[in-house]
Amino acid sequence: MSDSPRSAADGALVTKREYEKLSAFRGELRRFLRFSEEAARRAGLSPQQHQLLLTIQGMPGREFATIKEIAEHLQVRHHTVVGLVDRMESANLVFRRQSALDHRVVDVALTTEGKQILRGLTIVHKEELVRLTGVWSTLSEIIRGALPAEAEGS
Fold this sequence. Notes:
Elements: H1 16-42, H2 47-57, E1 64-66, H3 67-74, H4 78-90, E2 94-98, E3 106-110, H5 112-131, H6 133-146, H7 149-152
Helix pairs in contact: 1-5, 1-6, 2-5, 3-4
């Protein structure tokens, strides 16, 4: 009996070219993440602080998030987000307000300064994503190649 997880794909063939494409994609993804971390540091933020700003501003249909939503999005514990928000509030990058819908809940939103920093970071990230256009094509090829033949036609 094997210790490795089993799946329906265990019997599927994987070509050398697929390994190469996946390896190239993972390498580019890691380069993008490193780029993002370094860009955040150049802007005076930790990567996690950048992610917090982006999470808040990126909430669909609104420009605030609850502590719970941020924790879920960042995949960290509630108390970790509270500490992060405390530090960012002290730096005048975010502010808290009581939720209009539920007074037990606190909404977190970006200050003008927080929005300016995030805007600058987003511009450089968009430029980097344009550079990575070929990587997304490679990923698309990998996904198309991984689909069963009947799924490709749908």
